[in-house]
Amino acid sequence: MENLCKLDLGDTLIKELSCLIGHFPRLLYLHLRKCKNLRSVPSNILQLESLQICYLNDCSNLEIFPEIMEHSKGLSLRQKYLGRLELSNCENLETLPSSIGNLTGLHALLVRNCPKLHKLPDNLRSMQLEELDVSGCNLMAGAIPDDLWCLFSLQSLNVSGSNIDCIPGGIIRLSRLRTLIMNCCLMLKEIPELPSSLRRIEAHGCPLL
């Protein structure tokens, strides 16, 4: 199956994904949506040399996202290929590894509605993210690392539904940011000076502003 390009295991009862997935060098698209029994994925899932899109949405029992080794086979190629990673609606996901910053070619990271995720990892500054959506992740005060303000390619940021009480002043450094969404942040009291590049701002349901 060396020529396999798309693997769709969505809405199945699998509990684990075999480490043999690392033997699909031409896999472009990995779909694992609604795998309710899936608790973890093997560490070589992101060593696939051609992977472009990885969906792990609605895996309600997913607890662990693997570490990403900086010198793993194929990681240099990942800068060209892997563009989108989705981990939305993973109710038991508590952390993202700091090593996620090694995915330097990632353009879109969507980690929506993961209520046990309380903070973002450090070591983000090497990424080329254009879209970051962590809405509904229950981020606490101080949960946004300074590295986030080094994502100079970032164009869209969504922190809706979090418990942060302010947007850090470092946001002014995001010179390409066009969309900032902060809806339903019940503790949000302060928004600092924002980048002049912004074209869309939403802050509905923020009673303390």
UniProtKB/TrEMBL annotation:
SUPFAM superfamilies found in the cross-reference section: L domain-like
One Pfam family this sequence matches: LRR_1
Cross-referenced InterPro entries: Leu-rich_rpt, LRR_dom_sf
Keywords, sorted A to Z: Plant defense
Protein's name in the database: Uncharacterized protein
Organism field: Vitis vinifera
